[in-house]
Design a protein that fits this description.
- There is one protein chain.
- The protein contains two helices and 14 strands, in the order ααββββββββββββββ.
- By secondary structure, it is α/β, with parallel strands linked by helices.
- It has a domain of 98 residues: Hexapeptide repeat proteins (UDP N-Acetylglucosamine Acyltransferase, domain 1, 3 Solenoid), CATH 2.160.10.10.
- A six-stranded mixed β-sheet has the order 2-5-8-11-13-14, with no helix packed on it.
- It holds the Pfam family Hexapep.
- InterPro entries: Hexapep, Hexapep_transf_CS, LbH_SAT, Ser_O-AcTrfase, Trimer_LpxA-like_sf.
- It comes from Chryseobacterium paridis.
């Protein structure tokens, strides 16, 4: 696996400072991320190990209660957000989220799933499924 990029190092630093309850510094790192990458990533976000934000997370927006698993690949301009008070998404391990995708509400994205570019996901996605469209529909489920 390649070296973590600047945004992931910044997020890990922000999480470390937040968990150690060091005042002000997590917010400074958050603003650094916002200015340098145009990304809105809350200080208390939960991101698993091995997760990669491609293109330095350009334009990504994450809900503060979103849970992101391990080894997830997130392309640019992805939104993991709420939906009229219906919670935040939970992303499983080894998921790929394509450019411009919106994953909205308290839904669960299963392990090894793939979300196509510009998809709007408002329903749960099973393990190993490929989804796309507006609203996203299951295109296929890999049985490998």
């Amino acid at each position: 696996m390649s070296e973590p990029n600047l945004i992931m190092k910044s997020i890990r630093l922000m999480q470390f400072l937040y968990n150690k309850k060091i005042p002000l510094l997590p917010k400074i790192v958050q603003w650094f991320i916002r200015i340098t990458c145009s990304a809105d990533i809350p200080v208390n976000i939960s991101i698993g190990k091995g997760t990669v934000l491609k293109h330095n997370g350009l334009g990504v927006v994450f809900h503060e209660k979103a849970l992101i698993g391990s080894n997830v690949t997130i392309m640019q301009n992805v939104t993991l957000g709420g939906r009229n008070g219906r919670g935040a998404p939970v992303i499983g391990d080894n998921v790929f989220i394509g450019t411009g995708a919106c994953v909205l509400g308290g839904i669960i994205i299963g392990k090894d799933a793939m979300i196509g570019a510009n998809a709007v996901v408002i329903n749960d996605v099973p393990d190993k499924a490929v989804v796309g469209g507006i609203p996203a529909k299951i295109i296929r489920i890999d049985d490998r």
